[in-house]
Amino acid sequence: QVQLVESGGGLVQAGGSLRLSCAASGSIFSLYDMGWYRQAPGKQRELVAGITRGGSTDYADSVKGRFTTSRDNAKNTVYLQMNSLKPEDTAVYYCNARFVFNRNLDYWGQGTQVTVSS
Question: What is the mean pLDDT of residues 21-27?
Answer without folding.
Answer: 94
